[in-house]
Design goal:
homotetramer; 467 residues; alpha+beta; Glutamine Phosphoribosylpyrophosphate, subunit 1, domain 1; Rossmann fold; 2 domains; seven-stranded antiparallel β-sheet; six-stranded antiparallel β-sheet; 16 helices; 23 strands; 28% helix; 25% strand; globular
Chain lengths: 467, 467, 467, 467
């Protein structure tokens, strides 16, 4: 869950900045932009896009080619630098920004070290960059990317800024197209300009028209004034369903499907027969599904929970003592809509169950008579190894089935979406979706003998920094 | 439009911090907290509450008595310090945080200067503090506040932190009670604690129960473990209607009325007969009114505009060139809900008309067939002299009547709330409301011969800093 | 040991900045400038002058009247603000910067609190400011200063910036003139400009000509384009001898005496008869005395100790473990000048003995055959209550006599200046000097019954912050 | 004119920090430390060592191997990073810190670019690092360094931190040994530790004993607990004479010669016969030579110029208007030693003549009767291409001969050292010294056809950044 962009634009750093603002929801932990004229210019930092570039002269990031990144909080260890894009001077000078997760990165790391490559971090982005750089020592970019794709496993929607031959941006997606990546075009008086971005909202705010998604296994090369498409690997689509459920902005279009539409239908598709007085969404992500649900079931829709807009996703109470209460700090209750009411509380999904339980408790504190919890997503029973922060099975509240899920979160009832309903809402053949977190069918080769070990190893490494 | 708090709490600075977070919407420009044990401790700064206190050890603000402030952007000039609370060392040590506007402050300033008081800023808060300090040289706090109220004109909901006799917090409201101020109480193992706050949400997040509003003309004294109420001036209630329409959070209760309820009714009260396909609110303030409107008129409610949560009210494009487009940066359109549709666009109010016009333009760009603009507030035709940022009549788009208002903002039609509908929604006798911005009937004495000059003089002073 | 300035200058903040740079040696802990046009402008901060004003636009400190301050490290406690100048808004607006120490400040503090004056810090500067402000409520500045001088005891060379009647700077010195303060004048095309400064070097760097010292008990009023002199109290001169020995820069002129000359003579006046090979000064303060000593005794002068110019007086090792070794970090030895040599090591004085012992050890480590320690100052046997950081008698290595002083610092011999030699070097009647640290004859009334308690009380208060 | 260190030390970052403090005089513009345990850790920044590491936890720079650098101000252009050490990830991970100047770096740059190496800066350090990295792809470190030395021309005393085989520090010097580099050893309970440093003072402050200088053309490998010496190229010594004259600290030992001794003899060697009253040094560098001069000529030595210790070499007046006067700000005059006197003013050297002229003017302003200027260095007539900031011939005031040098700097007479006197003071055979700036005999091959073009090309590149 990160966001990336890559572009050719006469005002590259400025367009990159605005697009990163638009996909800030994909990562609030760090941000960075790498640009190229005849030299490379890099600015990265921890915090929101507005914080990282606060008071920074964007003009200092010279050039008309750029890649950028927003990072979701992870416990990385990066002694030499700060955050993405990562940059290597040799060969040609090249930088990379990455969204996804390489499942065989431990193995790749060992191979790279044998080749005298120093890896400074535990980030798979650095591994991906070095695998590609290694190929590039022997070959041209297309062949290098093919070699890279043959080696790496997992999910990767990435952009590379390459210094060779005056410079170009390369955008590519793994053969399953797990994480999203779209391409846009803009007509200007200086000719056509191009942008690759994790979500189409990044194109909207900078005047780019959405052309289409980068295809699974495809390499898109953006040059000054031109664009080329090369299908590197045979596409085996397995698009992440959770992008539609939670991650992406509702105003984005992924694989031609409006996220807003999908969420609205997710609400409509819920089969629900309890008697309730009111439908209340958990702001902000669940509003669309709740609306669809309320209309379909002919129930009144009310904004019974109000969000404090000034406390971000990553807000941390400066005092340990009160950290538990943070959910109350972020949400306030409209007593009139809650007190004495039988409530259908709609949330996008139930992951660990912690937030769900706090929400139910909060509503009951304000006098709710009944709280029926609606999850617009089916039960999440399996870890995700492709870049979403739910990689440890034991932490998933539904990992051992949804028996007594009501008890676990304290609700009067819990109603889940069905997998069939989800697929229908997305409107894509089931075979083209990655539903691994729902059904355990992982689209990629997990070369580790035991899938469970993937996340455990990963966590151990993160904590001990021993590898 | 600022927010204030005053409290006795064992963890005063921490409670102040959390309450200020809850009323951050009343001012994002600056924040500050003043505390007292046997000494005073002050921390103020420019920016959001989280920014001002980022990395600041709240423990350094010692004591169990505190006042705090969040400031709305104004063009003040304060060479010696930064922002409120203002502090004076003599007599006794006293600080003040203020929400409102003194209409006779030029006159007061002249008087104070004659008394050898140095005024460093053009802020009326500094004037109010010095008038009170001057009285306090001669008398006790109650008599001093009475003397102060007899001198100052305009609106003021304020809190004072006084060092005398071990310390106390004084909360008071002008005789008209124009700006809001509520009192809450908390039972703790150490006895009762008390808080005064601009809005009840500030009480909610820190565990205080709302007792009631500070009465117009009343002085409330919060001491360590006790509270006293003194009616200083005869109450002549004239509560600001715009607090219900726009300023306050929907989850606040003002004068016993839920802001959420009022807004919902504002939507229901609109008389509307056009044929439209969909009701779309302008997020976030108009959502409640739009919902009431849609349900009453049996029209589909859709979230066709999506707000970027990471761009605040005060976000400023770092590049002049694109400042015009900022509204597009903050809002993105769900094309499916807009394209080819006849839209009822609900906003809380129309002030200058600039934003309204941009919204209509934006929807048309995405293919809206018709855009009918609904204002949940009646036409704003007169300046406000009581602290809301609409003090220059010529800037109000409806100041010369609503003729061709459609043309001015580019909408197919514009439908306003009626004053009667507004009063009904609030559910309070019309005589107890300040409706000056709607009907020109100002509740206070405007001792300047020409009301218009009030804002003009004020603006001149702000710009020239000559006085 | 602080430094102050006060001035009327068309470029007041700029001249203040440069003069503070010139007297930076008097205090490296904090710095500040307060200016006045029709308003007051204040900038203070911790650190060196260059650090405090690094990146700060001096133009922002508007006006042609200013006072400024550099502070010596003390363990103050100042919750509301940072450092001097202190500022009070009432009456008229007035600020104060102070060099010295009030010996009856505890008593003054009690009186002020009885008068409803809040004191925020344990600084005597705040007390002095409030005593004067209190007088000013009743009277004109001259009478107010007379009233102030009648109340306060101790040493004070101070400047006040007063807002009354358009503004003026008042410079004054206690009746004993313990701490230095000089007045300079500059002819400009706009008429005459004036500056008061702790040392004449502050005048030199800004083009002011030294007129004379402010007289003991005198008040000098600097107005726009004019200067007035009022003798407030009868002068009873007792100028600090340690200014000549150590504190002041050698290029300063105090009471008409060149500090360089005095130090040179201090060296000449030492009676010394040991056989040594070389004279080595402890850089930088002792260089002049060492030169005089070497020439008089016909001994070779060598720079055997080299100072690291990049480690300031206040440099603190960032690691506790190595703090002990700091003296080695600051000084490096020229082995050739030391190894096998009988050395006369000249230092300005011996206070606690710690540094002296480390110096001797360092020289021995590099092979010195003998180390004879020469102190250009007589034995320091009594605490100073007038602003020099040696206020606790027990900490002075010579407080119980100089028996076995050689053993205490590890030298082969120790030779002190005589009091008579010191007086002769300064060239002023003994009666006009404060020699209290040498002979225990304190020039001021020490109203505390037991002189010793002065420093002890002071220390207790500093540590406990109980008063 | 930079300073470098490389070391194996259990507390590597801490020892590096202290040694960099000791050689801060070699560069005040930027500083950096790179350490290695199993990963690399890098911290660089602009400013003094104390500023760059102010508040930085040295513990964060983990490991027992380190290299470090202090940089002299140059107008570099380094968009990706800040300052040295430079770091490359591939192969093995390696960093480099460099003191010197490569005279064929334009040619090397072209070759590197042809090999797909991206160069981001105009720094020859980056070129040197890449040449070595390129060799290292094909071979072991010794062969790689031999290959590097065969390619690069000019001066280079450098340290490399190499990640290969667990890590090692490589220190080396060009075959002429132009810039200094010494090796020290420390016995600890954990065995022997080693340090390479530009000057021996860096060893002194961290407890290392000076072993000897790195030999011209030698490679010294510091490993954990061991050291190896490999003579890579035949030594052709040509040590920089200006290190003795000006650059190094007086307490350093270079090639076994005490810099203090050399400077003292430089003073003694001056042939001078004018009648003067006093000898005055320009602090701080000229003090030693002035002392030697005064004693030899039996003239009184006086410190007539006092330096403001708080204004560094790189202090820049924050106001353009007064920049001219900066020399007055840094130096103050003791009038008594100057007024009416015939002065022998001793400075280390005369380069551009600007400072010399200002000094003479300053002394005359204070009433000097005659000013005779003594340069402890012979006339500087030719540019230096080996790393000292005097690379443009036309800027050297003596480049066209010393005719009327008195007129140019305004002195009554100018007396220079002779080359013979300089050689004698250093005490080394003339053939082993680089005297190029004095006699135009450059020890290295200057492959550019016209030596003059070296500096001109260099300057053009610096300014235009076009290459």
């Amino acid at each position: 869950m990160c966001g990336i962009i890559g572009l050719y634009d006469k005002e590259a750093s400025w367009a990159a900045y605005r697009s990163l603002l638009a996909i800030q929801h994909r990562g609030q932990n760090a941000a960075g932009i790498l640009t190229l004229n005849s030299k490379f210019y890099l600015k990265t930092g921890n915090g929101l896009v507005t914080e990282v570039f606060n008071g920074f002269p964007l003009d200092g990031l010279k050039g008309d080619l750029a890649i950028g990144h927003v990072r979701y909080p992870t416990s990385g260890d990066n002694p030499l630098g700060e955050s993405q894009p990562f940059f290597l001077q040799y060969p040609h000078g090249l930088g990379l920004a990455h969204n996804g997760n390489l499942t065989n990165y431990l193995e790749l790391k060992r191979e790279l070290r044998a080749k005298e490559r120093t890896l400074q971090t535990t980030s798979d982005t650095e591994v991906l960059l070095n695998v590609f750089a290694d190929e590039l020592l022997k070959s041209d970019p297309i062949t290098s990317l093919e070699g890279t794709m043959n080696k790496v496993e997992g999910s990767y929607s990435s952009v590379i800024l390459l210094g060779q031959d005056g410079g170009k941006v390369i955008a590519f997606r793994d053969p399953h197209g797990i994480r999203p990546l779209v391409i846009g075009e803009k007509d200007t008086e200086n000719g056509k300009e191009y942008m690759a971005c994790s979500e189409s909202v990044g194109l909207d705010v900078t005047g780019y028209e959405l052309i289409r998604d980068v295809r699974p296994g495809e390499m898109v090369t953006i040059k000054r004034g031109g664009i080329e498409f090369d299908q590197i690997m045979e596409p085996k689509p397995a698009h992440c369903c959770f992008e539609y459920v939670y991650i992406s902005r509702p105003d984005s279009i992924i694989e031609g499907k409006s996220v807003y539409d999908v969420r609205f239908k997710l609400g409509e598709n819920i089969d629900f027969s309890k008697d309730v007085d009111v439908v209340i969404p958990v702001p902000d992500t669940s509003r669309t599904a709740a609306l669809g649900f309320a209309l379909k079931n002919n129930l009144p829709y009310r904004e019974g929970l109000i969000k404090n807009r000034y406390i971000g996703r990553t807000f941390i109470m400066p005092c340990q003592k009160y950290r538990e209460e943070a959910v109350i700090e972020k949400l306030n209750v409209i007593r009139k809509e809650v007190s004495g009411k039988r409530i259908a509380l709609v949330d996008d999904s139930i992951v660990r169950g912690t937030t769900s339980r706090r929400l139910v408790t909060l509503l009951r504190k304000y006098g709710a008579k009944e709280v029926h919890f609606i999850s617009s997503c089916p039960p999440i029973t399996n870890p995700c190894y492709y870049g979403i922060d739910m990689s440890v099975k034991d932490e998933l509240v539904a990992s051992k089935g949804i028996g007594d899920i009501e008890g676990k979160i304290g609700a009067d009832s819990v109603t889940y979406q069905t997998i069939e309903g989800l697929v229908r809402a997305i409107g894509m053949p089931r075979s083209k979706l990655c539903l691994a977190c729902l059904n355990g069918e992982y689209p990629t080769n997990l070369s580790c003998s035991n899938a469970e070990c993937l996340s455990r190893n990963r966590e151990l490494e993160r904590r001990n920094m021993k590898i």
